[in-house]
Design brief:
mainly alpha, about 0% strand, globular, binds zinc ion
């Protein structure tokens, strides 16, 4: 739970909604009437994936610094992924959604081990 709240707080503190809005509006105003809807959707999709990863990293950082188990978020994503697979929901979604969630989990596990190592190093230096 703490991990999910940390993730959502990170979206807010990184000002993701505002960034996305300005980026898309900027793109549309540059193109005028020649705006390609597919290109806008692609831009949105890429930026949303990027924002998810940023919010994951920062959310786990907040969670860890607040004294909670940083593995809460990747554990939740793993259960979520299992649920989607076991219920055949991925057949309805694009296959890259599966890759995206797996990439997020791996990325988070690596980040958490780095965080914990840094903490241990600074502890032994004191
Ligand atoms: Zn998110």
């Amino acid at each position: 739970m703490a991990g999910i709240i940390g993730h959502e707080i990170a979206h807010a503190s990184l000002r993701h909604v505002s960034k996305l809005y300005h980026e898309v509006m900027g793109y549309i105003s540059n193109r005028g009437n020649g705006t390609d809807t597919t290109a806008v959707l692609l831009l949105l999709n890429n930026r949303l994936e990027e924002f998810e990863q940023d919010a994951d990293t920062m959310g786990v950082f907040y969670t860890y610094k607040a004294g909670f188990d940083p593995n809460g978020l990747p554990d939740f994503l793993e259960r979520h992924l299992d649920f989607l697979i076991n219920n055949g929901i991925f057949s309805l979604l694009r296959f890259d959604s599966y890759i995206t969630i797996s990439v997020r989990i791996n990325h988070l596990r690596e980040y958490i081990s780095t965080l914990i190592k840094q903490e241990q190093n600074s502890f032994y230096r004191k």
